[in-house]
């Protein structure tokens, strides 16, 4: 089973290189969080560092007052054959071996400062340290910053909450085993590590309790109530540890000697002698190694399932993000034209009903235009007073002899001018909708999302074409109105004349300058205007659709295509200046996909070997 921990070690290192690490703000799904791990949690001065050094058998961790561990340290232990020399390697220094462990301590301090600076800040980016020694078991431990209660000088006021949040982000994951370090010479009820562990693991199924400083308890007292589970029961038995004293540390007492002293302490202790085989750092390391192997083995099916699902998701996303932009000008032009065709297809779908939007144009013709025409002020223009004034002014010094034809023409022309407003409004309303549909189609064209510069150019080109279409449409609809003024429908007035003669034969002659005659003129003009209105309600939409909608479907990007055919490679490259965020997303997805595929292959190989 030893290969399983080494396998997870390899995958964890690979995860960190692509930005996937526990406690990180991963924009992509995390493989790290699915991997079983052991996180070491404790308050400041709980003896956490001493426990780790006892397990390793080497003095290598930074020491000092305040917060010493300011970045997670992923400590990967590799057991080697007896007689081989101990050495260490950092993930960020792949080609360098450290045999002097005081230099390991110095490198941890320096690498911490490279990311956090020297002002006691913290960072969730882990340091990976691998130690190879015949005196260790295969095991991976994650040393987290010590929980604290007070910010020291130079640290932000939020440092207490920041550390707890980072630690919590690791230990709350269901695949994380919690190694909770508590000093025996303090009340277990006040232990920072046990308090946090209980919050994230209330049943104690993932928590290992470790009591340090048993040799420093007051004379006549012991920690048996805790160790034997009477005062604080956990799923796994408590383990007691006796670390090196400060005097031993100052004298650089060898860690192997310290391990022997620890064994002798428990074997000769009147309080803990009966538990000696289940106490000490060596026993703790073997227990954790065995359990971690077991947990990894039980999690392999779910890890493989997660990997396969994420491979499918990443491959789908990479398909959507598209391939990297080609360098060749011909390929770039082909790419641009392909995206333009995709945009035009979506734009036409909006107009033809495949997507929403086109129906709004029909609404302008079916409701807005007729409603606007009905609201025109014909009643005021054809009032008795207005008709008298216009007819009289049209006669000049010589009153009309039979029928005021010139007065009729001026009344009709004045009325027809009112149609210009609704005609112009219809053109502008359709123009606005077409521009909105361009914007929507651009946003809905997946291929274009990568290229903001090309989006801007296409919108500008499409809007420029729409402006020209609007000009032609405006001329056409106003021409329709002007045509009605240019030539009046003769048959309409002939019929009125015949009807008027019939009325004259059957009734007394009316005064051609009386109010009744003016009312009749107003009524006749109103009837004619109504007939023209019915015509324009049908012909204006035809002109608008022909000049704007139809042209938008046929030649929206024609001018843009002409420009592209003459563009040089530099210009094409500028249009394909991809959104940096999407470029970075594609790179990260590709790296993460490679990580998952390698992890799947390595897990499959390890399973088959077993």
Automatic annotation (TrEMBL):
<dbReference type="Pfam" id="PF00350">
    <property type="entry name" value="Dynamin_N"/>
</dbReference>
<keyword id="KW-0547">Nucleotide-binding</keyword>
<dbReference type="InterPro" id="IPR030381">
    <property type="entry name" value="G_DYNAMIN_dom"/>
</dbReference>
<dbReference type="InterPro" id="IPR019762">
    <property type="entry name" value="Dynamin_GTPase_CS"/>
</dbReference>
<dbReference type="InterPro" id="IPR020850">
    <property type="entry name" value="GED_dom"/>
</dbReference>
<keyword id="KW-0342">GTP-binding</keyword>
<keyword id="KW-0963">Cytoplasm</keyword>
<keyword id="KW-0493">Microtubule</keyword>
<dbReference type="InterPro" id="IPR045063">
    <property type="entry name" value="Dynamin_N"/>
</dbReference>
<dbReference type="InterPro" id="IPR001401">
    <property type="entry name" value="Dynamin_GTPase"/>
</dbReference>
<dbReference type="GO" id="GO:0005874">
    <property type="term" value="C:microtubule"/>
</dbReference>
<feature type="domain" description="GED">
    <location>
        <begin position="518"/>
        <end position="610"/>
    </location>
</feature>
<keyword id="KW-0505">Motor protein</keyword>
<keyword id="KW-0378">Hydrolase</keyword>
<dbReference type="GO" id="GO:0008017">
    <property type="term" value="F:microtubule binding"/>
</dbReference>
<dbReference type="InterPro" id="IPR003130">
    <property type="entry name" value="GED"/>
</dbReference>
<dbReference type="Pfam" id="PF02212">
    <property type="entry name" value="GED"/>
</dbReference>
<keyword id="KW-0206">Cytoskeleton</keyword>
<dbReference type="InterPro" id="IPR000375">
    <property type="entry name" value="Dynamin_stalk"/>
</dbReference>
<dbReference type="Pfam" id="PF01031">
    <property type="entry name" value="Dynamin_M"/>
</dbReference>
<protein>
    <submittedName>
        <fullName>Dynamin-type guanine nucleotide-binding (G) domain</fullName>
    </submittedName>
</protein>
<feature type="domain" description="Dynamin-type G">
    <location>
        <begin position="32"/>
        <end position="301"/>
    </location>
</feature>
<dbReference type="GO" id="GO:0005525">
    <property type="term" value="F:GTP binding"/>
</dbReference>
<dbReference type="GO" id="GO:0016020">
    <property type="term" value="C:membrane"/>
</dbReference>
<dbReference type="GO" id="GO:0005737">
    <property type="term" value="C:cytoplasm"/>
</dbReference>
<dbReference type="GO" id="GO:0003924">
    <property type="term" value="F:GTPase activity"/>
</dbReference>
<dbReference type="InterPro" id="IPR022812">
    <property type="entry name" value="Dynamin"/>
</dbReference>
């Amino acid at each position: 089973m030893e290969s399983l921990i080494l396998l997870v070690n390899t995958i964890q290192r690979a995860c960190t290189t692509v930005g996937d690490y526990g406690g990180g703000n991963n924009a992509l799904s995390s493989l790290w969080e699915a991997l079983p791990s052991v996180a070491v949690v404790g308050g400041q001065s709980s003896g956490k560092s001493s426990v780790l050094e006892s397990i390793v058998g080497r003095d290598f961790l930074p020491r000092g007052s305040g917060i010493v561990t300011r970045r997670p340290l992923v400590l990967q232990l590799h057991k080697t054959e007896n007689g081989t020399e101990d050495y260490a390697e950092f993930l960020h220094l792949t080609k360098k071996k450290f045999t002097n462990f005081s230099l390991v301590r110095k490198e941890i301090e320096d690498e911490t400062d490279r990311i956090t600076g020297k002002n006691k800040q913290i960072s969730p980016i882990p340091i990976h340290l691998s130690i190879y020694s015949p005196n260790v078991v295969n095991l991976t431990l994650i040393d987290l910053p010590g929980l604290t209660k007070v910010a020291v000088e130079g640290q932000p006021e939020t440092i207490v909450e920041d550390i707890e949040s980072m630690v919590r982000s690791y230990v709350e994951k269901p695949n994380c085993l919690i190694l909770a370090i508590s000093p025996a010479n303090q009340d277990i009820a006040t232990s920072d590590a046990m308090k946090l562990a209980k919050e994230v693991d209330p049943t104690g199924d993932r928590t290992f309790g470790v009591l340090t400083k048993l040799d420093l308890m007051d004379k006549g007292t012991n920690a048996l109530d805790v160790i034997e589970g009477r005062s604080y029961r956990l799923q796994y038995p408590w383990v007691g540890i006796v670390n090196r004293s400060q005097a031993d540390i100052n004298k650089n007492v060898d860690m192997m000697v310290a391990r022997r002293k620890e064994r002798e302490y428990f074997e000769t202790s009147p309080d803990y002698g009966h538990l000696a085989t289940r106490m000490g750092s060596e026993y703790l390391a073997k227990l954790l190694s065995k359990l971690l192997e077991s947990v990894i083995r039980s999690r392999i099916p779910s890890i493989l399932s997660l990997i396969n699902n994420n491979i499918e998701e990443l491959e789908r996303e990479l398909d959507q993000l598209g391939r990297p932009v080609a360098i060749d000008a011909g390929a770039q032009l082909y790419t641009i034209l392909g995206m333009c065709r995709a945009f035009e297809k979506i734009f036409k779908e909006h107009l033809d009903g495949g997507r929403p939007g086109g129906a709004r144009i029909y609404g302008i013709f079916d409701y807005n235009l007729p409603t606007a025409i009905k609201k025109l002020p014909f009643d005021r223009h054809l009032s008795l007073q207005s008709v008298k004034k216009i007819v009289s002014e049209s006669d000049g010094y010589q009153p009309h002899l039979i029928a005021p034809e010139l007065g009729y023409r001026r009344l009709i022309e004045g009325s027809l001018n009112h149609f210009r407003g609704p005609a112009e409004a219809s053109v502008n309303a359709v123009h606005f909708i077409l521009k909105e549909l361009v914007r929507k189609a651009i946003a809905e064209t997946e291929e274009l999302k990568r290229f903001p510069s090309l989006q801007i150019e296409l919108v500008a080109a499409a809007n420029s074409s729409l402006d020209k279409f609007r000009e032609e449409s405006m001329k056409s609809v106003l021409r329709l109105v002007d045509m009605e003024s240019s030539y009046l429908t003769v048959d309409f007035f002939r019929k009125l004349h015949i009807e008027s003669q019939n009325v004259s034969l059957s009734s007394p002659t009316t005064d051609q300058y009386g109010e009744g005659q003016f009312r009749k003129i107003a009524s006749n003009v109103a009837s004619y205007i109504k007939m023209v209105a019915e015509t324009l309600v049908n012909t204006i939409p035809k002109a608008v659709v022909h000049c704007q909608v139809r042209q938008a479907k046929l030649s929206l990007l024609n001018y843009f295509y002409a420009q592209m055919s003459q563009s040089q490679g530099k210009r094409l490259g500028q249009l394909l200046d991809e959104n940096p965020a999407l470029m970075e997303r594609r790179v990260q997805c590709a790296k993460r996909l490679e990580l998952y595929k390698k992890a799947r292959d390595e897990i499959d190989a390890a399973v088959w070997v077993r």
